[in-house]
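REVIEWER CHECKLIST
Item 1: Sequence provided? yes
Item 2: Single chain? yes
Item 3: Sequence as submitted:
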Amino acid sequence: MVAASRDHILTIFKDFSTTLDDHNDRKERLVKIARDITVLSKRIIFLLHRIPIPGHNHGPNGVGERGISNIGGTDEAYVKLEGMKKLLQAMSEQLQGQEVERYSAMISPGLQEYIEALSFAHYLRHKVLISYNEVKSYLPPIIPLPYSDYLLGVSDLTGELLRWAISAIGVDGPSRQKATEVCTFVRTCSADIEALTPYVRGLSRKQGITTESLKKIEFGTSIARFAVSSWRS
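Item 4: Structure as written out by the authors:
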């Protein structure tokens, strides 16, 4: 009786060990996939920053020095975003049949970086903020998209728009107007997201970064307007 009971307990602990090993291995695989998504998302962001700003000196057919046309740049970015679906599918396969919430900490960093790249491409093409449902449509159904990840991802967009706007400020004509439009867009996003900061961990810190980005864009556009008015007078 005692031996049978001991064997039963050992079997239970062996099952626990197998389950724990599987859980840890799955975590490692998800972390790797999330890192790959992060790396590719950053490359897409770099690609979008290389799109020539209207008004810069371009080569034939509006192609910049690095061979990316202003029209085709976002198209190329979207192709790369579509190509990332293989990684997203691999992530979904790891989550299949699992308690997805247990792995949210592993996948959140990659999702947020992906949302940042996607929202940047979306803004450059449509001049609006990508919606939650639009982001969700890019993900396999099993991959969760907490509102917190969406908000944290789009909050990072302001830093990229700061870089883009500063480049645009240095170009006379329509590009300078686009920098002003970015300023208005960032101001609106900041105001809309501010009310949600008490409910999302880490959002307050990112709102602080957004505020600093907004100040820099406002300062840059103000200096540009002053310089233009002084030159014309």
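Item 5: Key structural point noted by reviewer: Residues 156-233 form one domain.
Item 6: Recommendation: ____
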